[in-house]
Amino acid sequence: MKLAGTMRSLVVTAMFFSVMACSGPTLEVQKAQIRDNRIHFDGLTVQAFLDTWGKPAYTHRTRMQFFMLDDGNSMPRFRVPMGEPPQGWSTRIISEDSTFFGYPDRGELLGFVDDRLIYREQVPEAEVHSVAKMWAREDLFKTRLETPNAPTPAK
Predict the structure, then answer these.
(1) 82: domain range?
(2) Minimal CB count within 10 Å: which of 8, 9, 74, 81?
(3) Separation between Cα atoms, residue 155 and residue 149, nearest integer Å
């Protein structure tokens, strides 16, 4: 009997620590990291960027293939020349519904999967506008089946 109680206690403790480990940094910590330009790929969320940088000039949602890079970044298919692998590709690919933000004033392109940052590229302002025009052209020809469901921002 005492052993069952101890085991139950250990299981509950293990579950608590695993949930805490998976939850990542708090929203306030994330916003501080973004303000300090400590942008990394383990836990920064859409909401943290919206709260810190404000609404992006451009937003795009689509199902996208990402090339996983050795440095932790990912490269979306639309940023890679046809038939060429991206520099630093680790041979892994993921394909997920994605949200992209374009901040031309900051020269930033950001990509999110499951509300988590997986892609960041710093480019000239004109390049952000060029990518946004490409997104707009793609959106003209999308069917309802190709449009992912809108993510629900945290409150």
Answers:
(1) 26-146
(2) 81
(3) 18
Query: Does residue 98 belong to any structural domain of this protein?
Result: yes
pLDDT for 46-80, tens place per residue? 999 999 999 999 999 999 999 999 988 899 999 99
pTM to 2 decimal places: 0.76
**Counted domains in the chain:** 1
Any domain includes 129: yes
Distances 44 to 52, 91, 108 between C-alpha atoms, Å? 11, 24, 15
Is the confidence at residue 1, as pLDDT, over 60?
Answer: no
Which pair of tokens denotes residue 142? Answer: 């999308």
CA–CA separation, 3 vs 29, rounded Å? Answer: 40
Q: Is residue 13 part of a domain?
A: no
Print the SS3 string covering 112-132: EECCEEEEEEECCHHHHHHHH
Neighbours of 21 (CB within 10 A): 8
Number of helices (H) and strands (E), helices first, in the chain? 4, 5
Residue 154 in any domain: the answer is: no
Contact 78, 130 (CB under 8 A): no
Structure tokens at 18: 């695993």
Minimal CA–CA distance to 55: which of 99, 116, 120, 113? 99
